[in-house]
Specification:
The chain is α+β, with helices and mostly antiparallel strands. Helices cover about 50% and strands about 15% of the residues.
């Protein structure tokens, strides 16, 4: 099986539920990593990123996700804060930029987009054998990424109000120049030309600012899928990671069999992502095969059908089916946040729900994790 791992960006909030710029204090006290998840800085001091180790089993990945969240939260509690898995701050905030030369350059060049954007994403890394394989994967998973976004949607509230979107992070994130889908590349050479072309425009600093929905990692022998919101429930995060790995497996099998990627224009993918961000799993989506309007349930069913063989080979099929059913039943992170708000009409209740849900332990019958 392919190894996979994840990066989770977590919001740091104080006792009032307000975003708190304590990340530098947490990182100064973070233990040296020997054998477990790690934490690192992000552009804003009100957030922190956790990284799991590469894993083979989804149950082991979930253990690392939970451990990473607990590591970040334990450090945060020393400073009167909590680490929360929401993709945007439900309450009003004023971000504080992390002191770093690269970030300082970004602030100088990109103004409010860099100063004011605080979004928490979920990045899945899946092992590949070569860059050729990686590009082949990018070409063949692109049509499925809007459905992944819908499953992960976890940012309906921002700045004290319901945005009307299931994932408002998507809207905020796409202020960045290079965020979004790409066309089919066809070869490593074409992919490299694409990267050089964008960097040579001078609009972005370097390849690190290629904020694509998915890319071949420059740091690891992986494909990195970056389209999702950070998930409220750690189990949902593990399920989405398992689906991403199965998408990679399926794409590689198609590539080796000579099956070409679907010729869907990136403009259609942008529409599909926008709709997925608007309604999550509770509305309609362009169907990822027919590209006609369909229910989100039908779109997700198509995703599971497409990846079923790989999920089964990885031992993940039953786990993913249960997880997807759970997401549909609750409306995912967005649905759970809105349900918390509906009880009393208080944004603070949303944050309190998020703190609890972020650190719930997974149940035995889902992923064999106590």
């Amino acid at each position: 099986m392919r190894t996979f791992g994840v990066e989770e960006e977590l919001l740091l909030v104080d006792a009032r539920g307000v975003a708190s710029p304590v990340a530098p204090l947490l990182l100064a006290e973070a233990p040296a990593v020997i054998d477990g998840p790690s934490v690192s800085a992000e552009i804003q001091q009100e957030m922190i990123e956790t990284q799991t180790r590469p894993q083979l089993l989804t149950s082991e990945l979930l253990l690392d996700i939970v451990a990473g969240r607990e590591l970040a939260d334990g450090l945060a509690q020393r400073h009167g804060a909590r680490a929360v898995a929401v993709a945007m701050s439900p309450m009003r905030l004023r971000p504080h930029v992390t002191e770093d030369p690269r970030y300082a350059t970004m602030i100088e060049r990109y103004g409010l987009t860099a100063r004011g954007t605080l979004v928490c994403g979920f990045h899945v890394h899946v092992g590949i054998e070569s860059r050729e394989e990686g590009v082949a994967v990018l070409d063949r998973i692109r049509t499925w990424l809007p459905t992944l976004l819908a499953l992960s949607a976890n940012s309906p509230f921002f700045g004290g109000a319901d945005t009307g979107h299931a994932s408002y992070r998507f809207v905020a994130w796409h202020q960045w120049q290079s965020a979004g889908p790409t066309d089919v590349f066809g070869s490593v050479e074409a992919y490299d030309r694409f990267e050089r072309f964008l960097v040579d425009t001078g609009v972005i600093l370097d390849t690190g600012m290629l904020y694509l929905d998915a890319r071949v990692s420059r740091k690891h022998p992986t494909v990195e899928v970056r389209v999702a919101d950070v998930c409220l429930d750690a189990r949902d995060a593990a399920v989405i990671a398992a689906i991403v790995r199965a998408l990679v497996d399926t794409a590689v099998a198609e590539w080796r069999a000579g099956i070409p990627p679907a010729a869907v224009p990136s403009a259609a993918l942008r529409l599909a992502e926008w709709q997925a961000a608007l309604t999550g799993v509770t509305g309609s989506l362009p169907h990822p095969v027919t590209w006609r309007e369909a229910s989100a349930v039908d779109a997700v069913d198509a995703l599971l059908a497409h990846t079923a063989e790989a999920l089964d080979a990885n031992g993940d099929l039953a786990v993913v089916r249960r997880g997807v059913a759970r997401i549909h039943a609750s409306g995912g992170g967005a649905g759970r946040q809105r349900a918390a708000f509906a009880r009393r009409g208080r944004i603070r209740d949303v944050v309190e729900l998020a703190v609890t849900a972020t650190h719930e332990q997974a149940e035995d019958d889902d992923l064999d994790v106590a």
